C-alpha cells in the first residue's frame, strides 16, 4: 500500500508537467464520465473514478437473534485510466480499487482490477490481452458499478460470477442489416480469475458470449449500464447467451487459483472440470428497464483422485460427504458452486431523476454443492426493493437505499455460526460519486 500511495502522489505531481511537455490539452470533463486529455495524431487518455461509502444492517425475524449486524465501509474506491492510440489502432486500460472490497462485497487482497492492451484489427474486431471483466459471466457483471439500479448486485452474481480473468479476448460488433447487430466474444483465459502471481493450477478456460441487438445500439453505452437514466427514445433490447468450460479448476468456481487441490495416487494434480452456461436480456425504453438472467453450472470429477490437499499443505485420503459417506465425487462437488439460478429486476427512472426498482433472485443448489453452505448461501429466495435519487444528469452522483428479504433454509447460520430459524432483512444505503 505504501508503494501505491507513493505512485499516486508522483502521478499528481508529474501529470501537469507531462501535459505541458507533450503539448497535450484538456479537451473535456464530463461529471461522472472522467477527464479526457488528447494530443496530436489521435492520442488521448481518460482519467476517472468512483467513491462509494455505504452502510449495511442485517436483522433476523428469529426472536432468539435480537442483535443486528451493522457495518459502515467504503464499498468502492476505484481509479480508472484508459488510453487510445488511434494511429496504431491500440487501446489500453488500467483500473485499481483501494477499498479492499471485492466486486461482490467480499474482502479482497488485490487492488488490481483491470490491466489490458487491445488492438483494433478492423472497425468490427478487437483483440484484448490482459485482465478485464469476463463476458462469460451473467449480464449484470458487464455493467459499470456506478450505474447499478440497486445498492448491490444480485445474489446470482455473487454466487456464480468470476468477475475478472486474465487472458485473450476477441470482441466483435457486426451490423446484420437495418438497425440490428450481432456482438460475439470469444475468450481463452487462465481459468484462475484475477492475476496469478504464483503457480497456475489446472488448464485453460475457453468461453464465449453472443449478443443480439434487434433494435440498434443503446444510447451512451446503455448496454453496459443498468438504469435508463438517458430515457431511450425508442425501445432497445439485447438478448445474449454465454458458455464456458474450465479444464481443471482449483477453487469453488475458478475465481482464485490453488485454494482447493486434489492429487492422484502418484501425488500429481487431478482437478475437476467446470462448465457454466447462461442466457440473459436487457430492455430499456423511456426510463423503464428490465434485466433477466439465468445461470447454470456443472462439474465432472476425475475418477483417479486419491488425495486432497489441506490448507496447511498436508494431504488426506478421507472424502466424507455431507451424508457421512466416503464418496470422492460427492465430496469434491460439495466444495464447488454447482446449481442453477435466475434473477429478474425492473425499474423506472422518473423525469425528476428518482428511480424505483425491484428484484427477485432464486438460487437452486444441486444436492452436492457449496451453495448449500449454511453461512454464505442456503437461502433460495431474495426479494429486494429500492429507491434512488440521481443528483446529476447521468451517473455522476446518486444516493440509493434498498431493503432485501431473504429466506434461509434449515441448517443456516449467521457469520458468527449462530443458527438461524427465521428470515433475514438486509438494509443498505450508499452514496456514489463518479468523477
**Cα Rg:** 23 Å
Strand order in space, largest sheet: 3-4-5-6-7-8-10-11-12-14-15-18-19-20-21-22
CATH A-level architecture: Beta Barrel
Kindly report the average pLDDT value.
Answer: 90
The count of strands amounts to 22
**Major beta-sheet overview:** 16 strands, antiparallel, barrel
Low-pLDDT segments: 9-22
Tally of alpha and pi helices: 3
Strand content: over 45%
**Can you tell me the CATH class?**
Mainly Beta
Can you give a write-up of this model?
The chain is mostly beta strands and 435 residues long. The protein has a single domain, classed as Porin (Beta Barrel), CATH 2.40.160. It is 8% helix and 46% strand. The chain has three helices and 22 strands. A 16-stranded antiparallel beta barrel has the order 3-4-5-6-7-8-10-11-12-14-15-18-19-20-21-22. Strand 18 and strand 19 form a beta hairpin. The longest helix is centred in the first third of the chain and has 21 residues. About 3% of the residues have low confidence.
Short description:
This protein has one domain: Porin (Beta Barrel), CATH 2.40.160.
Write the SSE topology.
Elements lengths: L1 H21 L2 E6 L3 E5 L4 E18 L8 E17 L4 E8 L14 E9 L4 E9 L21 H6 L3 E9 L1 E2 L5 E9 L15 E9 L22 E11 L15 E2 L9 E13 L2 E13 L6 E3 L5 E2 L11 H6 L5 E11 L4 E12 L15 E10 L6 E10 L17 E11 L1
Antiparallel strand pairs: 1-2, 2-3, 3-4, 3-22, 4-5, 5-6, 6-7, 7-8, 8-10, 9-10, 10-11, 11-12, 12-14, 13-16, 14-15, 15-18, 16-17, 18-19, 19-20, 20-21, 21-22
Amino acid at each position: 500500500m505504501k508503494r501505491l500511495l507513493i505512485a499516486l502522489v508522483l502521478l499528481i505531481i508529474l501529470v501537469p508537467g507531462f501535459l505541458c511537455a507533450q503539448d497535450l490539452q484538456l479537451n473535456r470533463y464530463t461529471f461522472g464520465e472522467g477527464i479526457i486529455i488528447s494530443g496530436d495524431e489521435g492520442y488521448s487518455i481518460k482519467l476517472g473514478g468512483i467513491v462509494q461509502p455505504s452502510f449495511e444492517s442485517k436483522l433476523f425475524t428469529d426472536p432468539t437473534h435480537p442483535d443486528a449486524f451493522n457495518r459502515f465501509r467504503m464499498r468502492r474506491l476505484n481509479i480508472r485510466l484508459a488510453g487510445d492510440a488511434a494511429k496504431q489502432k491500440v487501446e489500453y486500460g488500467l483500473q485499481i480499487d483501494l477499498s479492499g472490497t471485492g466486486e461482490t462485497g467480499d474482502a479482497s487482497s488485490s487492488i488490481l482490477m483491470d490491466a489490458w492492451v487491445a488492438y483494433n484489427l478492423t472497425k468490427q474486431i478487437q483483440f484484448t490481452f490482459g485482465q478485464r471483466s469476463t463476458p462469460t459471466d451473467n449480464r449484470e457483471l458487464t455493467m459499470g458499478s456506478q450505474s447499478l439500479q440497486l445498492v448491490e448486485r444480485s445474489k446470482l452474481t455473487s454466487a456464480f460470477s468470476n468477475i475478472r480473468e486474465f487472458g485473450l479476448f476477441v470482441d466483435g460488433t457486426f451490423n446484420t442489416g437495418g438497425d440490428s447487430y450481432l456482438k460475439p466474444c470469444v475468450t481463452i483465459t487462465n481459468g484462475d480469475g484475477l492475476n496469478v502471481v504464483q503457480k497456475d493450477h489446472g488448464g485453460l478456460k475457453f468461453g464465449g458470449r453472443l449478443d443480439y441487438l434487434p433494435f440498434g445500439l443503446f444510447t451512451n453505452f446503455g448496454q453496459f449500464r443498468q438504469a435508463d437514466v438517458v430515457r431511450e427514445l425508442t425501445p432497445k433490447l439485447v438478448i445474449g447467451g454465454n458458455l464456458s468450460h474450465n479444464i481443471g479448476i482449483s477453487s469453488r468456481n475458478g475465481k482464485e487459483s490453488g485454494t482447493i487441490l486434489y492429487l492422484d495416487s502418484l501425488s500429481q494434480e487431478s482437478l475437476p472440470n467446470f462448465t457454466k452456461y447462461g442466457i440473459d436480456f436487457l430492455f430499456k425504453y423511456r426510463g423503464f428497464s428490465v434485466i433477466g438472467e439465468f445461470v447454470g453450472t456443472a462439474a465432472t470429477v476425475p475418477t483417479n483422485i486419491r488425495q486432497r490437499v489441506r490448507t496447511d499443505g498436508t494431504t488426506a485420503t478421507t472424502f466424507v460427504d455431507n451424508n457421512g459417506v466416503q464418496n470422492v465425487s460427492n465430496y469434491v462437488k460439495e466444495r464447488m458452486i454447482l446449481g442453477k439460478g435466475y434473477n429478474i429486476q425492473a425499474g423506472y427512472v422518473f423525469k425528476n431523476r428518482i428511480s424505483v426498482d425491484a428484484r427477485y433472485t432464486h438460487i437452486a443448489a444441486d444436492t452436492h454443492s457449496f451453495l448449500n453452505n449454511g453461512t454464505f448461501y442456503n437461502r433460495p429466495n431474495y426479494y429486494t426493493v429500492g429507491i434512488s435519487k440521481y443528483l446529476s444528469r447521468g451517473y455522476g452522483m446518486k444516493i440509493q437505499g434498498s431493503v432485501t428479504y431473504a429466506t434461509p433454509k434449515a441448517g443456516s447460520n449467521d457469520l458468527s455460526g449462530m443458527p438461524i430459524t427465521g428470515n433475514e432483512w438486509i438494509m443498505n444505503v450508499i452514496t456514489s460519486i463518479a468523477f
